[in-house]
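Review form for a predicted model. The reviewer records the input and the model, then writes brief findings.
Reviewer: anonymous (R2)
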Amino acid sequence: MKHRWLGVVGTVVPTLLFAQSVAPTERGPYPRIAIIRTHDGHTVDFEAGYIRHLERHRQNRDTWVWYGWSVTFGERQRWFVYASFGHSAASLDNPVSPAEDERDNVLNVSPHAEYVGNGLYEYLPGISRGTGEPQPSTRFEFTTVVASGRREIVMLYERLR
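Model under review:
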């Protein structure tokens, strides 16, 4: 069964921007984007745990730049979107200490949130706006589109123009 979904997740406000001191050497079209729903009453603990988790990334000399936004409007209010952009396929194959990262995530983030989505995507400049990497801003709109193939994506993009 084909599943099509088009919707505006919401206007989001950046809450955390984590930039490491070492810049990645290889750029590419792939972002990693994940969505978390914070448990009711756990927002403060989640934010503190996420900051501790980002500190672990910094201490391990992670070269990925991490962005984070809190959804502030709509049915997904209080959800959190985090992402890292501009990766090559090779850089995706070499994350910093994946087992340690997962242990730290389970300790600091998981007790306070439910993972709603997590994926790797490809930025397609021919049918996209912008550069594929966000600029720091106080607000932006996050739109997700699930389509069954490239032709359907192009058709949806044309309708959104």
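Findings: Strands lie at 5-18, 30-38, 66-71, 79-87, 113-120, 140-146.
Further findings: Helices lie at 43-59, 89-92, 98-108, 150-160.
Recommendation: see findings above.
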